[in-house]
Amino acid sequence: KAAQDQAKHTPEQLREAEGLYQVANQKFGSPEATESLQKMIQQFPDVNRTGCAVLYLAQSSKDDERAKYLQDCIEKYNGCFYGDGVQVGAYACFLLAQDYRSKGEPAKAQALENELKAQYADAVDHGGKLLVDSLKAESQ
């Protein structure tokens, strides 16, 4: 992904995108972080790190806004990855399934869990644990 970004953007653009992302890394959940991530999404919609930015916004949002950001991660930023190997779309699918389950919407949760098992069997969380193993642990 980094090579693809370098082919499409100048080093200055990539530094600017990373700078916008790092505001959120340092001030997660703050209005300043939200503003910086939204600016990043507008200016650099096709940079790998932008998928991570959308996932950050989802994690600091609630209810319908959170669901929208998670769905965007699945649909638009699936192919983006964190440096630790976490796939944005797969992780968003996992989080959205958890949200549906906690809201008492088991059919929606199960559909996403089935998608996760079928399409992302080797996807991991930030600790390197398989997401499908986390699904199994939660259902017990």
Q: What share of the residues does DSSP label as strand, in percent?
A: under 5%
| SSE series | HHHHHHHH
User: Low-confidence segments, ≥5 residues, pLDDT <50?
Assistant: none
Largest sheet descriptor: none
Write the layout of secondary structure elements.
Elements: H1 2-8, H2 11-26, H3 31-43, H4 48-59, H5 63-76, H6 88-102, H7 106-119, H8 131-139
Helix pairs in contact: 2-3, 2-4, 3-4, 4-5, 5-6, 6-7
Description:
It is a single chain. This protein is mainly alpha-helical. The protein contains 8 helices and no strands. Helix 3 packs antiparallel against helix 4 and helix 4 runs antiparallel to helix 5 (63-76). The mean pLDDT is 93.
Overview in brief:
By secondary structure, the chain is mostly helical.
